[in-house]
Amino acid sequence: MKIVLLSKAMVVGPYQKKLEELAKLPNVDLTLVVPPVWNEPHGVGPQRFDPQHTTGYEVVIAPMQFNGKFHYHYYPTIGRILRDRRPDVFHIDEEPYNFATYHAMQAGKKVGARMCFFTWQNIFKRYPAPFAQMERAVYEGVHAAVAGNREAMEILRAKGFAKPTVVIPQMGFDPLLYQPPPPQPRPVGRPPTVGYIGRLVEEKGVQVLLEAVALLKEPYRVEIIGTGYYRTELEVQAARLGIRDRIFFRNSVPSREVPDVLSRLDMLVIPSLTRSNWKEQFGRVIVEAMACEIPVIGSDSGEIPNVIGDAGIITPEGDAQTLALRIHELLEDRVQRLEYAARGRQRFLRHFTQEQVAHRYYQMYLAMVYGNVPYEPPPPVSVAPRLPEMQNPAPAAQSRRPRAASSPASATPARPFPVPEIASVREDEDEPDYPPGYGNAAQYDELPPDDPAWAEYIEYEEYADDDDEPPEPQVKTVPDWWLRR
Length: 485
Prior knowledge:
- By secondary structure, the protein is of the alpha/beta class.
- α3 (99-110) runs parallel beside α4.
- The protein is built from 14 helices and 17 strands.
- It has a 7-stranded parallel sheet with strand order 5-2-1-6-7-8-9, sandwiched between helices.
């Protein structure tokens, strides 16, 4: 099976590991078409092709026109490259409304290749001409699509794309780089540490994390790693809340240093907030934390619940009170932290390694050539409910509520995703269990789903013999032991 992958993302060396894994699979003749450099906009700058993992497949360096323009760039020599290789599968690693996708798709049609594209877009948007026309032409010309998250698949369906679609991450992760650190005691006198890694922008919701920490009376320590225009606002907010001495800011670190940073955390919090023009598309650092056996708490924005699954805690976005309670409960319950850590590592090994992602793409390519594309329905996700209004909230917490976090986005309730009417095949039916001790977490693979800590505050009376339905839950007053005084 001849495969050609057109991808500017593959200029990044670690990403190429997925292609090495793909090239190892039976009957795969793989060619990567990549530009010599991609001029990443928004101040990032040029990213030159870094050949770190290129064993087992061919690399073709192709010139790019309008380099750095997401919607306008294209590869003028792609037609000749396809004529030389005559691929069975042509994977265009671009959004369907980009000119690069439309131009490459026209070249693929001339050689009779089976084609697919990739999309992250998880917000419904209508594009102006000529991008709307190019998007429609791509929908008609390709044979399948890859969505980076489940809502992106829903957007395709809403726009009328009825062809086979699978949800697969664009890239996997290296289990040798992202692995649990050796056990080591916390330094004497150092309080538990809550961490955030990512961009410092308003929609990432770090202001909600600060508000949650301000509600806690325990002296938890918070490390915020990242850069962005919102840092000054966050520093002012921390001072206003009286917790500046607990908050430690640090600039972004290279990806190879992320495991070391994660090893110093007791948990990772990703409190993203959905906005009209943005919602979380994936959350790479969540997978990196799970791989390193660091418990994760995430909001229910975008794809976060589907990435975490049952390996962490989901809270309603913008709800600082619920987030504060979950942080305190998890930091005070070592057994629960170990359970989430183990589940996270096992979930990473089963779904997010470069090898696993390569296998899923391989199955899709086979299905494009020989049959229907398999689809794995999403797992159930439990979102922690909001706390009831407190009878006697801490006055300081109310008076010092920051302006930036005073009007959080309303929580998006978890809901089932529609399963497209294509062949349904679970990819893990015949997958063997990992041996005990593999990744330090396999022995926890069969743990039952976690019971939300919220259950501690709900009591049900015993069912009467003649009752068919349970009575309404009796909600207790939220105790004040977790509130900052």
